[in-house]
Amino acid sequence: MSTWSQLSFQDSASPLMEELIMFHDHAMLVLTLVTTLVGYIILTMFSNKFIDRFLLEGHLIEVIWTVIPAFLLIFIALPSLHLLYLLDEYDNPSLTIKSMGHQWYWSYEYSDFLDIEFDSYMIPSKDLEDNQFRLIEVDNRMIVPMNTYVRILVSSTDVIHSWTVPALSVKADAIPGRLNQLTFLVNRPGLFFGQCSEICGANHSFMPIVVESISMNSFLNWINNFE
Amino acid sequence: MSEVQQLSTAPFDPRFPNQNQTRHCYSSYVDYHRCIRKKGEDYPACEYFRKAYRSLCPNSWIEKWNDQMEAGTFPGKI
């Protein structure tokens, strides 16, 4: 989850988020190098008294500052496209969970086997235990088995909401009358937090998402003993 | 109710390769009802569609469509 004065990403919990973070770092590295180089050149140009007699024509430098940026762009574009198609790849999932947005809570439906359906409300600040986080904890978490491909179908019953979990690199708008598919694989157990990301009314800020990742055995145990 | 031992869900369908899965749910629902109309409730192959639409469609949609089926106002061709 996000913590105070955090500048970068949350710790990743899925292989795709890992890839996204690596791509971000790669792009930032290129950006830093370019900014440093260009900044250095600008500064040295201003702080010397040289007069360039080739000021109006210099084929060599023109070729250099055209070819190098072209290669730089290729080095950014190729990993970016690779990642774009990776994110779009839907493996055969083992579990489908439907996540419905309501004003103002999420409800989850697991109907692959038994019909499990529950609402997930934020815990109000006055009911919090000492070890819980304010405005982000919910009463019923969405439980998923780890190391399993999970398909989430996001939809809504009233206005547009948006279901997101940054640690798993997923986000999709919940639109009434439409099912948006997301797939992810969680590679470690834990709690992963997210918040509604589409302004949906007065309590938009108070409908968080909590994904709890547990082992497959515990998951089966949970389904079989639900209510 | 029997114990769930292993997970299984509606598989990837090449007719619906997109993020938008609305038609996937709807077609499965319609296919199931066509299937049981033609082959009867107990025909085992219809199970595939039933499982698919149960997994994919939100419960509120299924409820609404079932009511429409009963009232004879379901807009799809069954």
What is the β-strand count of chain B? 0
Residues in β-strands, percent of chain B = under 5%
Q: What separation lies between the terminal Cα atoms of chain B?
A: 31 Å
What fraction of residues of chain A sit in β-strands? 25-35%
- Rg of chain A, rounded, reads 24 Å
Mean of residue pLDDT of chain B?
Answer: 91
Any idea how many domains of chain A?
2
**Greatest interface (CB-CB under 8 A), with counts per chain:** A-B, 32 and 26 residues
Give me the CATH fold name of the largest domain in chain A: Immunoglobulin-like
Class computed from helices, strands and strand pairing of chain B: mainly alpha
Subcellular location (chain B): Mitochondrion
Protein name (chain B): Cytochrome c oxidase subunit
InterPro entries (chain B): COX6B-like, CX6/COA6-like_sf, Cyt_c_oxidase_su6B
Function (chain B): Component of the cytochrome c oxidase, the last enzyme in the mitochondrial electron transport chain which drives oxidative phosphorylation.
Overview of this structure, please?
- Chain A: It is found in: Mitochondrion inner membrane.
- The complex is a heterodimer of chains A (227) and B (78).
- The model of chain A has no long low-confidence stretch (mean pLDDT 93).
- Chain A contains three helices and ten strands, in the order ααββββββββββα.
- In chain A, a hairpin with a 4-residue loop joins strand 6 and strand 7.
- In chain A, the strands form three sheets. A five-stranded mixed sheet of chain A has the order 3-2-1-5-8, with no helix packed on it. Chain A has a three-stranded mixed sheet with strand order 4-10-9, with helices on one face. Chain A has a two-stranded antiparallel sheet with strand order 6-7.
- Chain A folds into two domains: 74 residues, Helix Hairpins; 131 residues, Cupredoxins -  blue copper proteins (Immunoglobulin-like, Sandwich).
- With 227 residues, chain A is of the alpha+beta class.
- By secondary structure, chain B is mainly alpha-helical.
- Chain B has a domain of 50 residues: Arc Repressor Mutant, subunit A.
- In chain B, helix 1 runs antiparallel to helix 2.
- Chain B starts with 21 loop residues before the first helix and ends in a 7-residue tail after the last helix.
- The mean pLDDT of chain B is 91.
- At the A-B interface, strand 1, strand 5, strand 8 and helix 3 of A face helix 1 and helix 2 of B.
